[in-house]
Amino acid sequence: MPRCRRGGPPWWEPRFQEAGFRLTISRQAILEVLSNTKEHLSAEEIYLAVHKNYPNIGLTTVYRTLELLVDMGLVFKFDFGDKRARYELSPGPAGKRHHHHLVCTNCGRVIDYTDFIDEERELLRRTETGLSEKYNFKITDHLIQFYGLCDECQGQF
Amino acid sequence: MPRCRRGGPPWWEPRFQEAGFRLTISRQAILEVLSNTKEHLSAEEIYLAVHKNYPNIGLTTVYRTLELLVDMGLVFKFDFGDKRARYELSPGPAGKRHHHHLVCTNCGRVIDYTDFIDEERELLRRTETGLSEKYNFKITDHLIQFYGLCDECQGQF
DNA sequence: CTCATTATTGAAAATGGTTTTCATTAACAT
DNA sequence: ATGTTAATGAAAACCATTTTCAATAATGAG
């Protein structure tokens, strides 16, 4: 079943207009899949989900579209150490909050957390200022991930 | 030319003893290469460096050894987004300081920095405590990287 | 020191996620 | 509508990494 949208066009539509890219069926389908999941899907998982409704959309297109979406900043690409890239729709204008990830090194589970983002933002600000002065390096992005054992996996050790 | 060591056995030797692994020529050669560079070498680069002195050590062994060293905690494995893993000798007992990385998204240059590590440690401590309580997640490691434009690449945009 | 045991190794082949090629199709401006 | 050009699908290529398997070397026992 579709998510609650008030019929209006999805927020990413103007982004295509501006950038001059065509908003094709494939691209919409892939964005739909990403917007309807809380998971961190791999390219193949996205392909399989899209394939249910659009059996003629190929894996190649999924890869190409994801690359485009990442370049456009609509989608984030992550590496959680399981040998394949995983994708996640960016928070968007009024969407999810910015978050980071906890990765269980035993079972691979990934937990999103939005707590402590404020502290991290403060760290980021100071680091950015400092490093910018020292190395003349302009920070545009950051990656913060924590690794460890999740609830269920702690018992095993 | 060899680094200044006072002839004593390298610090990683006992780690092999304890773990019950054999400290073979290959493993020593690879550790030597890693301890004599400031770069973030890829498996192939390590292979090429080792190959100069030990032409009979194969790439397979380099991969296998690196995996072992990472498991033993003697070496860190990083992904800077250039499609291959890069390796770095762990700080060791009296070695380099713990550091994080600045990655230039234009030229790929990687800068190590040890500044602000204290702030990060503080963030880590608080985050660890908080997330541990909320999700019962035991943090054992973290990955913090900043992306942006290095000194030289800023002019291009 | 010698031998047996078992970890380690090298070469070649396999793996598997991702990218490229190229002919075909479909979006969009006019 | 229609032409231009971006976007697509299928198959092949790519390429870092892993696996296979027979050969070799490190270590402990005697």
Protein architecture, described:
- Two copies of one chain form a homodimer.
- The first copy, chain A, is α+β, with helices and mostly antiparallel strands and 157 residues long.
- The first copy, chain A, folds into two domains: 1-91, Arc Repressor Mutant, subunit A, CATH 1.10.10; 97-157, Ferric-uptake regulator, C-terminal dimerisarion domain (Dna Ligase, domain 1, 2-Layer Sandwich).
- In chain A, 39% of the residues lie in helices and 21% in strands.
- Chain A has five helices and six strands; from the N terminus they run H-H-E-H-H-E-E-E-E-H-E.
- The first copy, chain A, has helices at residues 13-19, 25-35, 43-53, 59-72, 117-135; strands spanning 41-42, 75-79, 85-89, 100-104, 110-113, 138-149.
- Chain A has a three-stranded antiparallel sheet.
- The longest helix of chain A is centred in the C-terminal third of the chain and has 19 residues, at 117-135.
- The model of chain A has no long low-confidence stretch (mean pLDDT 90).
- The A-B interface holds A 79, 102, 104-105, 111, 113, 115-116, 119-120, 123, 126-128, 130-131, 134-151, 154 and B 79, 102, 104-105, 111, 113, 115-116, 119-120, 123, 126-128, 130-131, 134-151, 154.
- Strand 6 (138-149) of chain A pairs antiparallel with strand 6 of chain B, so a sheet runs across the interface.
- The first copy, chain A, binds a DNA duplex (30 and 30 nucleotides) through helix 2 and helix 4.
